[in-house]
Amino acid sequence: MTKTPTARISLADAKPAAAAVDALVVALAPGRGRKAEVVAPGLTAAVRTRLTEAFAVLGATGKAGEVTRMPSGAGIKAPVVVGLGLGDAAKQSDAESVRRSVGEAVRALAGTRRVALALPLADDDALLTVSIGALLSAYDYVAYRHASKKDRKAPVHAITVLMTSAPTAEQKQAVKQVAAVAAAVNLTRDLVNTPANGLPPAALAAAAAEAVDGLPVTVTVWDELDLRREGCGGILAVGQGSANPPRLTRLEYAPEGATAHLALVGKGITFDTGGISIKPAANMDEMKSDMAGAAAVIGAVRAVAELGLPVRVSGWVPSAENMPSGTAQRPGDVITIYGGTTVEVLNTDAEGRLILADALGMAAADKPDLLIDIATLTGAAVVALGARTAGVMGNDDDARAAVCEAAAAAGESAWPMPLPDDLRAGLDSRTADIANLGDRKGGMLAAGVFLREFVPANQSWVHVDIAGPAFNTAKPYGYTPKGATGSGVRTFVQIAAEMAQQVG
Ligand code: BES
Ligand code: MN
Ligand code: ZN
């Protein structure tokens, strides 16, 4: 797989006017009058006044995310200066708003190689906020472009965050860690953006191994024969219709001295046609993103291992291609999941829950402190929460709340959802222990209720449905590109970091 590079980032104690870059970004705050005021620590009053006037002429208001570009003129070394609206001072304490605004500027500067950011940095957290916003927005997926690649403006290559004092070793280290997280998010994006013919299950397994190459992570791959031996009837049934056989991959990061154990399971359907219960043709191409949960798990394990967090993390990636064919499973087939529970497959398009059921059972056998699965599981999640918010369910209210809080802290939109017991009756099967199709009403929740069946009751478990946020089919916004977003990675790193703090 061709890797999209992540921009380089550095800290410098330099005057903005003297920065040797191709574009200088300064902050614009909505002024008390109508004029937006330039707020760029380190600029002389004369230059600041000149820029404020010029941005006013161009109609800049300073509202969050507004980008105004102009030739910089006398006294500034960079040929271009960009006014970046940061919105109300009060709202600047909203880290996600700052990340998005910075993202707008860096995205608008595609085609520019070196960019310096002269923005107010209240504390070290603000430094990291600006850094991640900048790094995540410098992404463009061109791995499969040949003739048309030259028409694309390359994302910003090097970002310098300007500071008013010399960066400390701690600050440099913290920014390096942010860069590792951004690189992991970009890897996840690459995996999801890769077309399905470039990443069948065996290739996804190989890509998982490659992602953690050189890191202290043990990789285990189960092929069809291994899966049969284990009794993983869900992964096998979904995969049996494809010429590209299924796989299960485990990435095990178990640093010495770690006490807490986090297990992550990610849905890895490399392409979802729906199978015999085939999907309509319109937008079916987007179903290459049905392995976004798997990609998030791979990215998260890589990031956690690279950061060296003292927490054990097991990443599970069940993977199959859901195809209709003469060997495909049929509606009405009964299959046996890992652990022995039988499932009547009433709809072959409800395939994610089948492969997750196997993997959840295997992951739970290790009795991790927390088990989380992440999946592009239901269209109903998009109906309920829109395209940008993940639905969070589980059998442990505290764990579910903790995942939502971690997501908020990381800048990912997620919201708690219930698993109503009454939805279980809709999954009753005439033939088997359970059916894979439940009530259409509350479809996101019904899928969660199905999954709950495969998790031991005393196992703390959270289910995250990222059918909406994993793949941006609309325009880019903030630091989020079109296509794969890398949804879930930052939340998982946040959770792992919190668990690493826990003692005993
Ligand atoms: N991968 C889809 C869910 C999906 C839909 C993800 C749209 C992203 C965008 C999943 O496998 C699926 O097909 N779910 C069905 C379930 C139904 C048959 C119970 C759905 O949502 O329609
Ligand atoms: Mn499906
Ligand atoms: Zn699917």
What Rg is obtained from the alpha carbons, in whole angstroms? 24 Å
Largest sheet: 9 strands, mixed
Shape: elongated
Q: Mind telling me the CATH class of the largest domain?
A: Alpha Beta
CATH fold naming of the largest domain: Aminopeptidase
Query: How much helix is in the residues?
Result: 25-40%
In the CATH classification, which architecture of the largest domain applies?
Answer: 3-Layer(aba) Sandwich
| The number of domains | 2
Average pLDDT works out at 97
General description of the model:
The structure is a single chain. The chain is an alpha/beta fold. The protein has 2 domains: 8-167, 3-Layer(aba) Sandwich (Leucine Aminopeptidase, subunit E, domain 1), CATH 3.40.220; 188-503, Zn peptidases (Aminopeptidase), CATH 3.40.630. The protein has 13 helices and 21 strands. It has helices at residues 45-57, 95-108, 124-137, 169-193, 201-211, 224-230, 233-239, 292-307, 352-364, 379-385, 397-410, 443-452, 489-501; strands at 8-12, 23-30, 36-39, 67-71, 80-85, 114-118, 158-162, 218-222, 247-253, 261-266, 268-272, 312-322, 334-336, 342-344, 370-375, 390-394, 414-416, 434-435, 461-465, 471-472, 483-484. The strands form 4 sheets. Strands 8, 9, 10, 11, 12, 15, 16, 17 and 19 form a 9-stranded mixed beta sheet that branches. β4 and β5 (80-85) form a beta hairpin. α2 (95-108) packs across α3, α4 packs antiparallel against α8 and α11 (397-410) crosses α13. The longest helix has 25 residues, at 169-193. The radius of gyration is 24 Å and the shape is elongated. The protein starts with 7 loop residues before the first strand and ends with a helix. The relative contact order is 0.12. The model has no long low-confidence stretch (mean pLDDT 97). Bound molecules: ligand BES, manganese (II) ion (MN) and zinc ion. Ligand BES is lined by residues 272, 290, 347, 349-352, 376-380, 382, 437, 443, 467.
